[in-house]
Amino acid sequence: MRSQIVSGNIVVTDSTLATDYFQSVSSGNWGNIAIWESSHDAITWIPATLVPTTAANQVFIRNTHTVTVASSISADQVLVVTGGQLTIPTSVTLTLANGDAFDLDVSGIVLNQGTITFGSGATMGVSGTYIHNTTTGVTSLLNGTTLSPASTFVYRGSDSLNVTPSISGRTYGNLIFESIGGQYTPVSSSGAGAMAINGSFTISSAGGGTVSYNMTGYTGTITVGGDVSIGNSSLLTLGTSLLKVRGNWNNGGAFSPGTSTVEFDSLTAQTITTGGSGTGKTFNIFKVNKAVGTATLAGPLRAATFTLTLGTFDTSAASSSAVTTTGDLIIPSGTLAANASTISVGGGWFPS
Length: 352
What we know:
The protein is 1% helix and 47% strand. It is mainly β.
């Protein structure tokens, strides 16, 4: 289709140029001309007569539209706006070519079930949500990607799709592991590089399945700026790591601590919802180290060692047998507000 301007006997016809701006007008396959409009200036738009290629000035996938890359292509300067989605299906490759700024800029959602590769110098930026639902390697993808602190990165697997994560030395916004069917068991992570999660860390039971994430091979420090949440019937297993939590703790599933330390060190109030004191609810070393603010217990707490070095730990919302240690209870500083709760210590109480 072309745009025509008629004046007397003169007909001026406007057509799409490969270097135009493109924007979606509906959901559909990338290669379907009918889902695109084009513009020379990003102001006046006409129905496109070409589909976007790497020559395009910019490509916008707009709110409420899902564009699917049905066959392998190269693209550049693609912006997935809030509410829009770009899907790369199984066995399809999206190759990003290098242009100005991010070559794939994600404020909406990218669902990758295939492969995203990067040409020399190409980059991806995510301030929205990226879903890695593929067994193709994630390392090179993360090396070419900037994740904003507010972004969400999802590892989505199933009992038949074991998506391998990359955590050593990585920085995420929000990080989610979820299953779309059966139990997703990510390959045990390794390495010792510190991992930072600016937002929340979620081992999810959403999506129709459960997750059992074994991190015993990873020995680095994990710092979570938001909440740690373990969904119903899901499991998080740690090895020797230090896990620093600056939001709340919500265990609706199971936690296997290994010889790890879980430290609550936020400058704001925190709530620890243990989910109980039986199997899957206990800590190895439980530590409160808060310069300001209170950590409040919601439910009974059981740990091998309890350490309060700074701040206030309040058991007021917990049951009468609030804190049980099989080893020592160590309070060099800080305030233990036990109220009417019972503190059971299997080892020593220091200072005595």
